[in-house]
Automatic annotation (TrEMBL):
Stretches assigned to the Glycosyltransferase 2-like domain: 6-128
PANTHER family: GLYCOSYLTRANSFERASE (PTHR22916), UDP-GLCNAC:BETAGAL BETA-1,3-N-ACETYLGLUCOSAMINYLTRANSFERASE-LIKE PROTEIN 1 (PTHR22916:SF3)
Keywords attached to this entry: Transferase
Any one GO molecular function term: hexosyltransferase activity
Highest taxon above the source species: Bacteria
Designated name of the protein: Glycosyltransferase involved in cell wall bisynthesis
Source organism (scientific name): Chryseobacterium taeanense
Amino acid sequence: MSLLVSIIVPCYNASHYIADVLISIQNQTYKNIQCILINDGSTDNTLNIIKTFSDERFQIYDQENKGLSDTRNLGIEKSKGDFIFFCDSDDLLPPKAIETLISAYTGKEDIIIGRTATYAWDKKENISFLPHPGKQQIISNNHSEVLLKNITEGLSPIAQNKLYKRSFITENNLKFFSGIYHEDELWFFETMFRARNVVFIPETTYLYTIDNAQSITKKKSDKNLLGYLSVIKTIYHSYYLKYPDRNINAYYIAYLKKIIIGNFKYDSNYSKEAVLEMEKTFKEVNPAFSDRINLKNIDKTYFKYLNSISLKSSDAIKKEYFNRPVNSLRKHFKIILFRLFNS
């Protein structure tokens, strides 16, 4: 018998999208699926639209609004499949998405990852692609190779479009962090920290909608900043301090600090209290860096540099690093290296 795939779809005020999303799931060439639809307290017509689908593979749950993390966690609890797959209620699956992903399974993979296209819903066309290897890569992830790949080459940290072995999720008691923005960043770290075999395949298996104005990724706010701060604090306390021999943790914290500083550069709407919390967290989350890691020396130096910048005040960061024409941390780092080697 073929392997069962549980597709988890959290739904919140998705009436404009949800019918097409569910049709794309219903039309999958791979038929052995369990589709878990969770209406998370929608105030529009989402639940009624969901109920029009009579497919016996679709299971509908209705709850008061709890947020994306708790909704996905409920989906994990209700899943019965050999694999778990997350699909957002405004994204689409190409017809062979699940078939393509499952065909890459050889019996040992914890996570199988397809290529994600960014999709303009209104124009019905693909725009570009999220960061992803160009060719199939089979990674034995015993030394945090995937996390290293992310901080040096860039990968997509979204939870969607990844086929997770369900036993891997349950045995490691992996859950989404409740009540924060950017929960996917933490989920990506935690899953890739623990996974032992990860496969990237080159085929496009997901269409990620980018023109949904309601998406939280479109909204810069204190919650965005505080969400990222929660992520680095969790990694610091639950991984850096707990696993002192896993040297990736310090470098990954510096990588996330770079993202936070980059967002801070382009956003003037953060409250004074949120900025003070950023300064406080950066100083408290101040890891030591070991050179015993499979990174180029210049990359090691760069991440240490990023961490040193984060320890400055927000005003100093703005004054020193966000002024034109040299208005990026990477450019400043290159200038510092040039001066060192030419002094």
